[in-house]
Design a protein that fits this description.
The chain is of the alpha+beta class and 393 residues long. It contains twelve helices and five strands. A five-stranded mixed beta sheet has the order 1-2-3-5-4, with helices on one face. Helix 4 runs parallel beside helix 6 and helix 6 packs antiparallel against helix 7. The chain is elongated and about 125 Å long.
Length: 393
């Protein structure tokens, strides 16, 4: 799931290798002739282990075969070398394709069994190493495939958001192109006409006609600013539909069943203004993140509906509940909703799951979208000041 591995984990995994040195004692070997060869091969094993775990994941298959080769080389002097084979299977489990990894593990154990039988070593040790080696290898193989599937789902999750943002920007681009193309042409035409009228002389009729054209330019500019503001507010808006799709990918990649429902009326264009939809979508994102990280839920549900003049988002799960109201991002949710005259209701009995309800009036103030329109407001102020400046002149 993308979480960092503990730094002590590789050392903990090496603890099991002590059996490479203990097995000769339990096997009743008469002398320490096995020790020099064991120390030498163990030093090579540590190098392979370090490279496989930290440095050279791209050659993990070859490094695993190297560990297996150490087992074959040391076994005539130390039957504890079976430990190298188990480590080889453990790392093979993280190599893909899976079929190659499984075939390699089975082939290595078959050849290793043949060596043991040829050397006449008691098969009880062989049986234990075979069971443990294959079990660890297959378990790691399953884990590796799950990690690859999670990575693919996370890429899809990010792609949904990227495509949704791209589609919104393309829509805004088309709207601005159509709007500004017409408006700027009209402003240029009116400004040129006003200039020609002023060039005719200082007669009251010419000055009055020029002033009317300048007033018309100001009116057109103000109307354009209003329309630009409506288009630009969507640049930072987040869609509930895109967040629901992302939530499904995120939760189901963690094994949490997710059900989403959007009332048909919410899909009609213009029903949910950007000032209403954006805080609801961000609330949904935060709620889903809490479910994925903290809830320990098996299933979750989200629903968006319109009740009277209020948009209502409900998110629930069957997790452990007991959410502390000030924590888990709830303060940010509540503040975001209150900024648009909305409110947040949280029910989270311990052991009974969590239910979150966000309610926002359809005619909410556009506080959430204000940052996106700072530039148009400045232009509007300048446009409004133009007639006054002319009068002063």
């Amino acid at each position: 799931m993308g979480r960092a591995r503990p730094q002590w984990l590789p050392l903990l995994m090496l603890v099991w290798s002590i059996w490479i040195f203990l097995t000769p004692h339990y096997a009743g070997l008469p002398s320490l002739r096995w020790l020099p060869a064991t120390l030498a091969t163990y030093a090579v094993f540590l190098v392979l282990y370090w490279r496989a775990y930290f440095r050279d994941r791209g050659h993990l298959y070859a490094l695993s075969l190297g560990m297996g080769a150490l087992a074959f080389a040391l076994t005539p002097m130390n039957p504890g070398a079976q430990g190298f084979l188990i480590y080889a299977c453990a790392f093979l489990g993280f190599t893909l394709p899976a079929r190659r990894a499984i075939v390699t593990m089975v082939a290595m154990h078959a050849l290793y069994a043949a060596e043991w039988l040829w050397l006449g070593i008691p098969t009880i040790y062989l049986f234990s190493s075979t069971v443990v080696g294959l079990a660890v290898g297959l378990m790691n193989l399953s884990f590796a495939r799950r990690m690859h599937a999670d990575a693919a789902l996370r890429l899809s999750h990010d792609e949904v958001r990227r495509l949704a943002a791209l589609a919104e920007r393309e829509r805004i681009g088309r709207d601005l192109h159509d709007l500004l193309g017409h408006t700027l042409s009209l402003v240029a035409l009116k400004s040129e006409l006003a200039g020609k009228l002023l060039q005719r002389g200082d007669s009251p009729q010419a000055r009055e006609a020029a002033r009317r054209e300048i007033d018309e330019v100001s009116r057109v500019a103000r109307e354009a600013l209003t329309e630009v503001r409506a288009a630009v507010t969507g640049i930072r808006a987040v869609g509930v539909a895109a967040e629901l799709a992302s939530a499904k990918l995120l939760l189901e990649s963690d094994g949490i069943a997710f059900e989403a429902e959007i009332a048909p009326e919410c899909l009609d264009a213009g029903v949910l203004p950007a000032a209403v939809e954006a805080p609801l979508a961000l609330t949904l994102r935060e709620a889903v993140t809490n479910i994925q990280r903290h809830a320990r839920a098996r299933s979750a549900r989200a629903a968006l509906a319109i009740e009277g003049e209020v948009a209502v988002l409900r998110v629930s799960d069957d997790g452990r509940g007991g959410v502390d109201a000030p924590g888990n991002g709830l303060t940010g949710m509540r503040e975001r909703l209150e900024a648009v005259d909305g409110r947040l209701i949280v029910e989270s009995p311990r052991g009974g799951g969590t239910r979150i309800e966000a309610r926002v009036p359809l005619h909410a103030p556009e506080t959430a979208s204000a940052p996106a329109v700072v530039a148009p407001v400045a232009v509007e102020a300048a446009a409004g000041a133009a007639p006054d400046a002319e009068a002063a002149a």
